[in-house]
Design a protein that fits this description.
The chain is mostly helical. The chain has a single domain (6-204, 216-421), classed as MFS general substrate transporter like domains (Growth Hormone, Chain: A), CATH 1.20.1250. Helix content is 82%, strand content 0%. The protein has helices at residues 6-27, 29-40, 45-74, 79-97, 106-129, 131-134, 140-170, 178-195, 198-203, 216-229, 235-264, 269-297, 299-318, 323-334, 337-351, 357-386, 389-395, 397-408, 413-423. The longest helix is centred in the middle third of the chain and has 31 residues, at 140-170. It starts with 5 loop residues before the first helix and ends with a helix. The model has no long low-confidence stretch (mean pLDDT 81).
């Protein structure tokens, strides 16, 4: 396979940039910071975990509603980069704002986190859609997997710096409080994210688009309505989205709730941060490996492999008791989380009509985000009913089973591509 192009590498580098947000804000430092703030305010561990789950659900619901509409408008020439820039700016700004909210204001922290999450996820809708502009169908699996691989590698650098500052603060080696150390981590995230997004802004452009026309908003709604009416024409694409709806729900919930889960089990914050760091390091080569194996065994086959691994994760989580158990669980997650996300993105990108990529990635977003509502709610409600977070995590296995069953009905990649080309 030939070398990666400047456009491909610039697109990949955004994964390097925004993955700092994923690990520090979504997964590691912010959840611990929030949990500490909630505990100081007298909120129980199960309730604070539930509130975090509800917050994630609210953020994803808002974006799910906007995704298809904005995506359809963004298919017009020149709009994709504008929408990407808008959400990117919101995400970076509110991530930085987290550093200036008083640590005892847990509700304000959740509100700012919600808006930052909308910005980050919204930017990803258009970033994902840019994959059709930077590479070919034959290279999508490898380029997408390379993005996730670089994302894991890139995220470790600001994560290491953040962990170092937090640990040095805890040991009083640095004369600052734990709270200030976490806030510095939030600022590092925003700066890293903004700085390494520059290659995408400079080198990635919308090559596939619909020519502008009068009343673009009205016509966008008409096109969206037409697509919904003609869903049967895109049977393979929407059948895949239905499978994705279920299995990605479990993947996203495991990622976003992992630190809250570990905290409820009594694992110390320092141990959690170290475990999450190692998870990022291990996940990088596995994400790239999934891309290479997909070229040999097909993307669909490797998606099944990832789903099976996550079923094992959910089962093992139910019996989790010690820090060693959490280490084992984390390594299982690391082996597949990047691969299953990367191949889902590239599999879907191969199926969509390129000129309507934003519209269809809007649907990809709505299916993924509505799924992200169900998972955290399931964990939150189950945790409150049983008083045990591990019961909620175990319940996620149902989502993977349903996703696998539907994925079985999705035609293989070659058949899906052939059917899609007949429509387009």
């Amino acid at each position: 396979m030939k070398r990666f192009t400047k456009e491909e590498n610039s697109w990949v580098f955004y994964d390097w940039a925004n993955s700092a947000y994923s690990i520090i804000i979504s997964t590691a430092v912010f959840p611990l910071f929030y949990k500490a703030a909630a505990t100081k305010s007298g909120i129980s561990a199960a309730d604070s975990t539930a509130y975090l789950g509800y917050t994630v659900a609210i953020a994803t619901f808002i974006l799910a509603m906007l995704g298809p509409i904005l995506g359809t408008i963004a298919d017009y020439q020149g709009f994709k980069k504008r929408f990407f820039t808008f959400f990117f700016t919101i995400g970076v700004s509110f991530t930085a704002l987290l550093a200036f909210i008083p640590s005892d204001q847990w509700l304000l922290l959740l509100i700012a986190y919600t808006i930052a999450a909308i910005g980050a996820s919204g930017a990803n809708v258009f970033y994902d859609a840019f994959i059709v502009d930077v590479t070919t169908e034959e290279r999508m699996n490898r380029v997408s997997a390379r993005g996730f691989g670089f994302g894991y590698i890139g995220s470790t650098i600001p994560f290491i710096v953040s962990i170092a500052i937090i640990i040095l603060a805890k040991t009083q080696t640095l004369p600052i409080s734990d709270t200030l150390a976490s806030k510095i981590a939030f600022l590092i995230t925003a700066i890293w994210w903004a700085s390494f997004s520059i290659p995408l802004f400079r080198n990635v452009f919308q090559r596939y688009y619909i020519e502008r026309e009068p009343n673009p908003v009205v016509n966008s709604f008409k096109r969206l309505g037409k697509t919904i009416k003609e869903i049967r024409k895109y049977r393979a694409l929407f059948l895949f989205l239905l499978a994705y709806f279920f299995y990605i729900d479990g993947v996203g919930t495991v990622i976003t709730m992992s630190t809250a889960y570990g905290t409820d089990l009594g694992i110390g914050s320092t141990s959690l941060l170290i475990i999450l760091f190692v998870t990022q390091v291990v996940a990088a080569p596995f994400a790239i490996l999934y891309g290479k194996l997909a070229e040999k065994f097909s993307g669909k086959t490797m998606l099944f492999v990832g789903i099976i691994v996550y079923m094992i994760v959910c089962t093992y989580a139910f019996f989790l008791k010690t820090t060693l158990d959490f280490w084992i669980l984390a390594m299982l997650v690391a082996s597949s989380q990047g691969g299953i996300q990367a191949l889902s993105r590239s599999y879907f990108a191969k199926l969509v009509p390129k000129k309507n990529a934003n519209e269809f990635f809007g649907f990809y977003n709505i299916f993924g985000n509505f799924a992200s509502i169900m998972g955290p709610l399931l964990v939150g409600v189950t945790a409150q009913i049983t008083g045990k977070t591990n019961s909620g995590v175990f319940s996620l296995i149902v989502l993977f089973i349903i996703g696998a069953i539907i994925l079985m009905k999705v035609p293989n990649e070659k058949e899906s591509l052939a059917a899609n080309r007949k429509i387009v």
